[in-house]
Amino acid sequence: MLLPELRTEVVRFARKMYESQLVHATQGNLSARDPKSGLICITPSGADYQLLTAEDIVVVDEQAQVVEGKWLPSLETPLHTLVLQRRRDINCVMHTHSPYASAFGVVYQRFPMILAESALCLGDEVPIAPYQMSGTPAFAELVANTLGHHSAIIWGNHGAMLVGVTLPLTFSIAHALEDSAKVYTIARQLGTPVELPADEVIKLHDFWVNHYGQKALTQEAVGEA
Ligand SMILES: [Zn+2]
Predict the structure, then answer these.
(1) What contacts 24+ positions apart, CB below 8 Å, involve 60-64?
(2) Distance from residue 110's CA to the centre of ligand 1 (Å)
(3) How far, in Å, CA of 152 to CA of 103, rounded?
């Protein structure tokens, strides 16, 4: 079996994603690139997270062609591979349906930076992609273009996607996004939330980028207009 250790890690974090309610049932998907070979391990289509084993993880190349696996890869594989092709600074892509973050993609409201911990990894902006049916090449282009150099993106009327250098960091980003969205929703019921100053958010995010090596690419390098 190719890449047994990375496949096992993808299973571990896919299950953590499920157990911490970032997804329910067979929702969402997760991929990780092996930096040495460039091959990508991705969850299978319709994955049952509780039963998932390393053998169920599908290995694909950067063109989304299956190299090894007994199941079909996630329907979102072309999106994962497109993002991984364009973003050499990250190795992992996670798609979640976490409810509070998803709600921002329903009201299309700018995502506020209210928690220091979240500003560290999210930076000053979480872009929201307009609604489009997922699982298509056009959707992959839309999401990859809207993501740009950011760590997180909210899909309009759908869910969220996070990218990171490692699986633990990507999992942390998913929770940073959901925690911020949830705390903001609670805070609005108590009073008027106060956002972190913009220069403080930049300072926090720069520290995180330098510490973890998630270097932001230039706009040209990620193909943004
Ligand atoms: Zn989804």
Answers:
(1) 62/38
(2) 21
(3) 15
97 Cα–ligand 1 center, Å: 6
Predicted confidence band at 211 (pLDDT cuts at 50, 70, 90)? Answer: confident
pLDDT in tens, 81-136: 999 999 999 999 999 999 999 999 999 999 999 999 999 999 999 999 999 999 99
Going by their DSSP bridges, the two strands 92-96 and 159-164 should be labelled as antiparallel
SS3 94: strand
How remote is the CA of residue 37 from the centroid of ligand 1, in Å?
28
Determine contact, residues 10/32, Cβ cutoff 8 Å: yes
Looking up tokens 């999401």, which residue turns up?
Answer: 143
d(CA 210, CA 59): 31
Task: Give me 121's structure tokens.
Answer: 């990894």
**R_g (Cα) of the chain, nearest Å:** 17
| CA 4 – CA 83 distance, rounded (Å) | 23
Q: Which of 88, 125, 131 is nearest to 222 (CA)?
A: 88
Contact yes or no for 121/208 (Cβ under 8 A): yes
Tell me what the mean pLDDT of segment 22-37 comes to. 97
